[in-house]
Specification:
With about 120 residues, the chain is an all-beta fold. It has no helices and 11 strands.
Length: about 120
C-alpha cells in the first residue's frame, strides 16, 4: 500500500487555475500508473487523468486541453495543472496510485469553482 497526500485544492473563479499535488511514500512496490479522479456532488466518481510509467497519458474528454497531468522522474509525486476551470469542475479530487499490490488513494482535496 502507498501513502498518498494531496494538496492544492481551493476556491477559484471560473476561468482560473489551480495545481493539485500528490506525494507518495511507503510504497513497497513500484508505482505503475498515477492518476487523478474526482467525485462531483451528486455524481459518480470519474477518472480525470492518468499517466503511466511509460509517460503515456489519458484524459477525460471533459478536461482535454484544459488539464495537464505530470509527474516527477522517480514517480513519487504527480500533479494536475487545471486551467480554464469551469463550475462543473467542482468536486473532491483524489489521487490514485496503482502498483502490483493494487490501488491506493489519497484523502482528497476539494476544488470549488464559482461562476
Amino acid at each position: 500500500q502507498v501513502q498518498l497526500v494531496e494538496s492544492g485544492g481551493g476556491l477559484v473563479q471560473a476561468g482560473g487555475s489551480l495545481r493539485l499535488s500528490c506525494e507518495a511514500s511507503r510504497s513497497k512496490y513500484p508505482i505503475n500508473v498515477m492518476a487523478w479522479y474526482r467525485h462531483p456532488p451528486g455524481k459518480e466518481r470519474e477518472l480525470v487523468a492518468n499517466i503511466h510509467v511509460s509517460g503515456n497519458t489519458n484524459y477525460a474528454d471533459s478536461v482535454k486541453g484544459r488539464f495537464t497531468i505530470s509527474r516527477t522522474r522517480n514517480n513519487n509525486a504527480w500533479y494536475l495543472q487545471m486551467n480554464s476551470l469551469k463550475p462543473e469542475d467542482t468536486a473532491a479530487y483524489f489521487c490514485n496510485a496503482r502498483t502490483a499490490w493494487g490501488d491506493s488513494w489519497g484523502q482528497g482535496t476539494l476544488v470549488t469553482v464559482s461562476s
